[in-house]
Inverse folding.
């Protein structure tokens, strides 16, 4: 009896961008500057397929439009290499533009993989590398204005990529466990720090993954956060490698606020002062001045190098300010390129 489920689409596009799309965007002047070669000439070898949301009622894509797994993987590696070439752009407008370009093209990669229902191993290889870029971009672009970097949209892309990767792990064809799975399951928990759902899903993992060093460390940090043991939380955060630090970075501002709130209650007493330098070390902040600014922003008084904790003075409604952290993130970046890091970490 024939199967009622249609056979999955198999892409045959040999390049990073379908020829028809390249010709159309070239004709309309819609090629990105990162897709231009020497002399700002259109270069089909540099063009990468744009993300285009599938619309209801449209005809399904033709086989020559999606890219097969080997081309998709080459595309992701190309995007990581392009990022390496522009890594000296810092937090400038150029870095934000480059980030928007890579994010869009990675969404197109994820869509091509979903259209073809790629099996576990090839799908995981794509999403692991995409997550490395997305996690690093979030830390490097966090101080950009919203017009250049939409943090909420970036978080949505990350969560969608995590979901696709974890599905790929569950659907792995031959049952062999990808070598990088414990690392990325740990990154998932760190990025979703404090989430009951993420914690429950992590605790349901097979014993070999749940008890791995990466996941065990992530669980320990998560428990320290939930228990409001901030001295231990920031001590463990200092010891994390670069990539897990990127996953934890979005929670640092919130953890700093919760720590100050906890100390405002715990150390609230008449004539009681707490050394500001000690507080900066405990919260793993880059400078004493940064710790002073944080305290004053939350209504706490700083006098002669000390902070005066008064629970009645603490302001809880201050907007969180996400900023780079050299001690907890940026200072851990080594000499390798992003492409080298991805190849070392991924399956």
């Amino acid at each position: 009896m024939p199967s009622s489920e249609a056979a999955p689409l198999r892409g045959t596009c040999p390049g990073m961008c379908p020829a028809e799309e390249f010709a159309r965007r070239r004709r309309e002047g819609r090629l990105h500057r990162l897709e231009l070669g020497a002399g700002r000439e259109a270069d089909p070898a540099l063009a990468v397929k744009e993300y285009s949301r599938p619309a209801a009622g449209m005809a399904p894509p033709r086989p020559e439009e999606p890219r097969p797994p080997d081309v998709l993987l080459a595309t992701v590696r190309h995007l990581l290499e392009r990022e390496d070439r522009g890594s000296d752009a810092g937090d400038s407008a150029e870095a934000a533009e480059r980030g928007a370009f890579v994010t869009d093209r990675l969404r197109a990669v994820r869509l091509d993989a979903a259209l073809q229902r790629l099996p576990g191993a090839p799908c995981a290889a794509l999403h692991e590398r995409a997550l490395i870029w997305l996690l690093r971009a979030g830390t490097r672009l966090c101080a950009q204005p919203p017009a250049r970097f939409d943090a909420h949209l970036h978080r949505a892309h990350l969560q969608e990529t995590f979901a696709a990767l974890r599905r790929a792990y569950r659907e792995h064809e031959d049952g062999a466990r990808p070598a990088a799975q414990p690392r990325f399951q740990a990154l998932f928990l760190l990025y979703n720090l404090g989430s009951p759902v993420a914690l429950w899903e992590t605790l349901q993992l097979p014993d070999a993954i749940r008890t791995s060093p990466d996941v065990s460390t992530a669980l320990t940090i998560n428990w320290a956060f939930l228990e409001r043991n901030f001295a231990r939380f920031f001590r463990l955060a200092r010891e994390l490698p670069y990539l897990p630090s990127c996953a934890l970075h979005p929670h640092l501002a919130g953890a700093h606020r919760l720590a100050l709130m906890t100390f405002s209650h715990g150390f609230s007493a008449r004539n009681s002062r707490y050394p500001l330098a000690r507080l900066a070390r405990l919260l793993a902040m880059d400078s004493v001045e940064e710790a002073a600014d944080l305290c004053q922003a939350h209504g706490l008084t700083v006098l002669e190098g000390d902070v005066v904790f008064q629970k009645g003075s603490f302001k809880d409604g201050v907007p969180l300010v996400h900023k780079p952290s050299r001690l907890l993130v940026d200072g851990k970046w080594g000499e390798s390129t992003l492409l080298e890091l991805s190849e070392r970490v991924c399956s």
Summary: The first strand starts at residue 274 and ends at 275. The chain is about 55% helix and 0% strand. Residues 93-115 form the longest helix (23 residues). Residues 253-331 form one domain.
